[in-house]
Amino acid sequence: MSFKGLQPIRYAGREVWPLIEGGKGVAATNHASSGAWAAAGGIGTISAVNADSYDAEGKIIPQVYEQLTRKERHERLMRYGIEGGIEQIRRAHEISGGKGAININVLWEMGGAQTILEGILEQTHGLVHGVTCGAGMPYKLSEIAARHNVNYLPIVSSGRAFRALWKRAYHKVPELLGAVVYEDPWLAGGHNGLSNAEDPLSPEDPYPRVKALRDVMRAEGLPDDLPIVMAGGVWCLREWDDWLDNPELGQIAFQFGTRPLLTHESPIPQGWKDRLRELEPGDVLLHRFSPTGFYSSAVRTAFLRSLEGRSLRQIPYSKVQAGEHTVQLDVGVTGKNFWVTPVDRERARSWVAQGFVSALRTPDDTVIFVGPEEREMIRKDQADCMGCLSHCGFSAWKDHDDYSTGRLADPRSFCIQKTLQDIAHGCPVEDNLMFAGHSAYRFKQDPFYSNNFTPTVKQLVDRILTGD
pLDDT-derived band of residue 26, with 50, 70 and 90 as boundaries? Predict the structure, then answer.
């Protein structure tokens, strides 16, 4: 018996539980976890962001970029993405046994997103039931979905964002709108849609925001049985009791992003799984270091703390003597065009004394101070850019026109492709970006995971259906 008589919903012509596995980044959600989630009767979601391919022995093929130019490396990245996405979908479909449903998740801001998505869908007819897409404003998502006859599920964080998408494009393809995903920008893991009008330090209650989204959908003539998927901060259904069978909200489904990380089928390495069990409240940081320019949420590993340190060792400068910038910076830089305040010069001298001997310019007329090893790593990672984003603040890459954002590459950021590939394939957790939702600390508190218990996906879905 399911919690509060929870009922299956109709999705893509089939009955499924209104439980969706969140599709997580680079290789953190693959065929094994999503196929098992579908087999348990829910909607499994494969990450189609730089998805893994396999050799004849079933081993993961490392994504290596030997091409000389960024544009050539970008083209290789897109081929990897298409090949991997197709492989993951075929394997997930086999595992699902035809039960549940299989979605794929893409970031609109990933490099070559449209090319990769079209390439995957062209060769997986009948195997994919829907495409979830966020990290940007994916206006063309409905058009692509229509070409391949799959559902599309935009990820938004406000009714306003959905209205813009609907007015501009989605109203032309209403029949394939499978659901609207509301992703709580203060609670969800990974990249999120916090707008400039919202305060990252002042979380808002999701209920009125989701009610406002439903009001927008109703105003556009969309039916109440078209689900809104609540994503971000969802741990157990018991805590969402007043959202179920609620006439104000209409049909609600729930997306679980963080909990499926700790299952037998989850593809993340054991070191990552072990770290999840140790997290305390506040260990997940909402930050703005991502080269996408979006806010995102990740565990405060040594890697993330080093990025915080970089930005703290930062001072503004002028190219000429002006205002309070009355002295010349005499450490960390070559040349005399760096005018700073006397206080900032003293701070810079103290950082250099601590070993942070190199000053690197940012696009915002500031310099940051880093050590020699960090400087070399930043320069190498920028030079090795393979164009994984449509616009990258770290490398100043752009995936179209002249392939440059026209801005100075930003050393306060990092190569997101490198660190997400590394953590997903067994490199030390502390040295990399570890995305997680803000409820991840609950692994340590939830008795379900006590005595080091790791559930199968089926055991997790069954547990969720009890309300816990």
Answer: confident
Residues 6+ apart with CB under 8 A from 299: 275, 279, 283, 284, 285, 434, 435, 436, 440
**Which uninterrupted H or E stretch holds 296?**
strand 296-299
Residue 437 covered by a domain: no
Backbone angles phi, psi at 312, to 5 degrees: -70, -30
Q: Are residues 285 and 354 in the same domain?
A: no
Cα separation, 47 vs 244, in Å, equals 28
pLDDT at 445 over 70: yes
Q: Which range has the worst mean pLDDT, 62-66, 157-161, 375-379, 435-439? A: 62-66
Q: Which pLDDT belongs to residue 135?
A: 80
- Summarised one tens digit per residue, pLDDT across range 313-328 is 999 999 999 999 999 9
Whether 217 and 134 map to the same domain: the answer is: yes
CATH number at 11 reads 3.20.20.70
| Residue 125, number of CB atoms within 10 A of its CB | 10
CA nearest 290: which of 17, 23, 25? 25
Give the total number of structural domains in the chain: 2
| CA 434/CA 414 separation, integer angstroms | 13
Tokens of 350: 């103290």
pLDDT at position 1 over 80: no
For the four alpha carbons of 109, 112, 117 and 118, in that order, the dihedral sign comes to positive
The string of DSSP letters for 130-154 reads EEEEESS--TTHHHHHHHHT-EEEE
Euclidean distance between CA atoms 219 and 101, whole angstroms: 29
